[in-house]
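User: New here, any thoughts?
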Amino acid sequence: MKLLYVFASLILYGCAVNPQNKTLAELDASYLSNTKASTRTYKDKTPLQIRDAAFKVITLLDPDDIKFDVKDGSLMATRFNTYYAVFFVGAGRDWYSVDIEKDGRGSNVRFGFYGELNNGLIVQPIPESFKSNISVGAHNSINDYNLFFDRLDYFLGLNPTWETCEMAKKKLADKNNQLFLCDQLGLENKNP
C-alpha cells in the first residue's frame, strides 16, 4: 500500500509541475531569435571550407554513430540511438543539416537539428534517412545554435577555444534546460 501511495504521489507531482505554455507573442519572439541564431555569414570562408569544418563538428558529437550525406549545398547527418530498461525500450533518431549558400556577402550557413524518440514495450526503429533544410522552431534552444557555430568557428580558425558542453551549459539562464547537442541520448561529444 505504501508503494502505491508513493507511485500515486509521483504521478500527481508530474502533473502538477508541467510548465505553462508560452503565449503566442513569446513563441513568435523565440522563433525569431532562433531563426537569427541558426544562420551566420562568413565573408572569407568558402562553402567547401565550411562544409569540411561542419563535418568535423558533427562527427565529434558521436563518432561511431553519425552517418552523412550531401546534396546541393547541404551537408546532412543522421544518428540512431537506443536504450533498454526493465520492460521498456526506446529507439530514436537525430537529424542535422548544414545548408550553405554563396552570395555577394559571403557564405551563408544555416544549421538545423531535429530528433525523435519512440519508446514502449516493443519499438520499431526509425529508418535511416537524411533531411536538409531542417526548419527552426520556437522551442529549440538558441544555445544549441551558438554552440554549433562556436565549434564551427574553431575548425575555421576563427576561435582558438573549443566550446565544451560544460562551457555551453554555464551560459544557460535556466540551469535545468538541456542542450540538444549535449544531452541527447548516447552523445559522446568528443574533443578535437
About this structure: The CA atoms of residues 36 and 108 lie 12 Å apart. The longest helix spans residues 2-16. The first strand starts at residue 39 and ends at 42. Confidence is low (pLDDT under 50) at residues 1-14.
